[in-house]
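Entry type: protein chain
Record version: 2
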Amino acid sequence: MNNRGFTLVEVIAVILILSILVIITTPVFTTISKNIRTKNYESKKNTIEKEVLAYAEKYFKDDIYNGTTNKCYYFSVKYLIQNGIIKSDDAKEEYIENDVTNEKYTNSYYYVVVYYDAANLKLKASANNSASVNSTATSFNGVSCSTNKKL
């Protein structure tokens, strides 16, 4: 008799061990994947905020330095992409994708308060990407706005 194969018990034991390993490792990989997507989106948000601040510094500097009050600007995602401030996540459509929720931001706004910091003699900004912030807000992140401008 030829004993070159595996018995049914041995095959079932191997399948059982592999199943247990899959059950243990799946949540770990899921958590790691979610953390990577979250960090990627946070990095994307930080880049957009820096680009918006640089844009405001370049084009609205005189308006802010000459004024005594803070200006609040809304930058739509579409405006930011069309003016070359940020790149779209898709070559055919103009949107930014939230890597965590897979939402596509097209009509949402980055609300940016640009203000002059007299102590440090430079412009500062505070930004948020929320469709829930309205264009009549009088303060944002602790900074009072005297003028709201939607772009």
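Comment: Helices lie at 8-59, 61-66, 77-82.
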